[in-house]
Specification:
This protein has 214 residues and is an all-alpha fold. The protein has helices at 2-24, 29-40, 43-65, 68-74, 76-102, 107-111, 114-130, 133-146, 153-177, 181-189, 191-211.
């Protein structure tokens, strides 16, 4: 019976995994934050931020599997509030990036005590992920692909655990790759351009989130 259930639900689970991987490989505000932090501040801070993003992804996946994001999506006021907070937070990240680009020295990197601020970077990653209402709607689509009506509980658990592992691996890899010596040297030579580019992208994402219809 268990083998029959696996055969029945496995295609949907694999489809949900595939859609999730495609979405996570598309650079968004969370990926940009990991890249910039890893290059500018260091591997430890980049990894802490990556863990925060992965944790946020797990929370959204769990809420969706429990059906709570459908409830959130049905309340326009709540979804709008999340959108506004997320848009303003991205604009704040844009301000920080522009401020760093305008400075002769990397203010953010110099002012950061990596050991004392790892929890702060974790919370930053978690905030970026949790204040994006599009993440909630994306998870509704992902879970819907793999979780048929009447599916047993283990299917939801497999989807949540699997996507959490994928999220953790991918975001940690981003942090590791962009904190390597070659990337750090590139950042050192083009710091102002990198920060200015990040500022433009964060500002664009924030304004788009604030002005878009969810």
């Amino acid at each position: 019976m268990m083998i029959d259930q696996i055969a029945e639900y496995l295609p949907g689970i694999l489809l949900a995994y595939s859609v999730f991987l495609v979405s996570i490989l598309s650079p968004g505000p969370n990926i940009l934050a990991i890249m910039g932090t890893s290059m500018a501040v260091g591997r430890g801070s980049g990894l802490a931020l990556a863990l925060g993003v992965a944790t946020g992804s797990m929370i959204w996946a769990t809420l969706t599997a429990l059906g709570l994001t459908a409830v959130i999506a049905s309340f326009a006021v709540l979804l709008t509030a999340i959108k506004i907070v997320g848009g303003l937070f991205l604009l704040w990240l844009a301000y920080k990036a522009f401020k760093s680009a305008a400075s002769a020295h990397d203010i953010e990197a110099q002012a950061s005590d990596q050991h004392a601020s790892l929890s702060g970077y974790f919370l930053k990653g978690l905030t970026v992920q949790m204040t994006n209402p599009k993440a909630a709607l994306a998870w509704v689509a992902i879970i819907s692909l793999g979780l048929k009506a009447g599916a047993p509980t283990w299917v939801a658990v497999v989807i949540v655990v699997g996507t959490t592992v994928f999220s953790l691996i991918c975001h940690v890899l981003y942090a590791l790759v962009f904190s390597t010596p070659p990337m750090v040297r590139i950042y050192a030579r083009a710091r102002r351009w990198v920060q200015a580019t990040l500022g433009v992208l964060f500002a664009f994402a924030g304004l788009k989130l604030l002005t878009s219809r969810i």
